[in-house]
User: Fold this.
Amino acid sequence: MASHRTELRVRYADTDQGGVVYNSNYLVFFEVGRTEMMRALGVPYAQLEIEGTIMPIVEAHVNYMAPARYDDLLIIESDVIEVARVRLKIETKVIHAETGQLLAQGWVWLAAIDKMGKLKRLPEALVVAIGK
Amino acid sequence: MASHRTELRVRYADTDQGGVVYNSNYLVFFEVGRTEMMRALGVPYAQLEIEGTIMPIVEAHVNYMAPARYDDLLIIESDVIEVARVRLKIETKVIHAETGQLLAQGWVWLAAIDKMGKLKRLPEALVVAIGK
Amino acid sequence: MASHRTELRVRYADTDQGGVVYNSNYLVFFEVGRTEMMRALGVPYAQLEIEGTIMPIVEAHVNYMAPARYDDLLIIESDVIEVARVRLKIETKVIHAETGQLLAQGWVWLAAIDKMGKLKRLPEALVVAIGK
Amino acid sequence: MASHRTELRVRYADTDQGGVVYNSNYLVFFEVGRTEMMRALGVPYAQLEIEGTIMPIVEAHVNYMAPARYDDLLIIESDVIEVARVRLKIETKVIHAETGQLLAQGWVWLAAIDKMGKLKRLPEALVVAIGK
Assistant:
């Protein structure tokens, strides 16, 4: 299934007083990864929302192996690992670009809902693009 | 004009690797201050939005005197210092609750717009409450 | 084992363009919950860090059941559910204060490390306070 | 004096329920701009900190002209506009990459301090690089 890599630079704003990236920011990194994957698939998430599909996270999991630090260049690797009728599971790895070390790994389940918040089928264009 | 004090505890997430609160977070503290001031005035901002008035910041200024640190209890003091037809200026002081030291001080201009983004008069209820 | 409830008000800064709290912010809410639990236990986390124990998250999990929204008053319920030699598992529930609805639930594993990043035993004072 | 342009993509996490980028995030965009400017000048900020110079913001100003929105590609233009013995003023423009519209403009004063928090001269390498 679909897989994608994008790069991201750690900002000072991402760090905390422990001198490392604060734990919740990895979920933002996951967002950047899947957004760029969807763009690369030809189905930008911004376009999906305009067309009436919102995809909130319904479950998230993160394993933190080693800290990312200020100004580190990170590789965000996203992989679609499961596709169901109304939801999608994406695994994400956060890798230190210079050393290749795996810093964090996790996954999210995204559901497809309409503007009223009702579950709906994943957009056909997205399912087709993922399957290619 | 209207004046209000509220308290806020610095979170680990607010800090950066310098061991102090990251600069942009003071604008979030300002938000907390003016939100609680408006609630105390009987005109909660959430209610204004429901009734069709959005109040984005059009200009912001912050002077950083001394750093706030993790777990500090802060006093956020908000003062309405100018009221115009379609906008409002609020000054905010960030004070260390224990020592009384002034850590930061700034102000924002908020404009009133409707859901189309068009400028509109400040809600009457808000103007009246501020003037009391 | 130790259990604690604290309250928290959703900020405008916490929301996203979907009109609900952005997914990563729940991990910040979890932080607020466990910080206040540790303070209530008489072992403030800020004090632990001063004494040389840092407690980074090594694993996190969140189930999002229903969205929290701007200005919602939330109850953050924290429960220590497992204590090991060098780590601690805390479950957190995010509850809508007015309706009592469970909005999100998750847990984190926190490890104890020293300033060099080496694993160390959980501070004795913390273990004792939790066991009470 | 030194001038630099870098690009940045608006994240979903940057937006608020008004459907636009939340006000404090522009200060984070300013950080990204000046960080990339310093890297381009051959004096990466991460390196300055390692060598003992921390550069906190002591004053910040932002004018918000038009909202940046989710997934917008932004140009962050940074210009050093004043250099003093212990501080530096940087102006930043946030421009919509596609339309060329100026969305926000502001400036920050950065001070140079040592690890004890004492003011110190700007690093010579930085002053030389800026003056070129």
Chain C has one domain: 3-131. Chain C is about 25% helix and 35% strand. The CA atoms of residues 62 and 99 of chain C lie 21 Å apart.
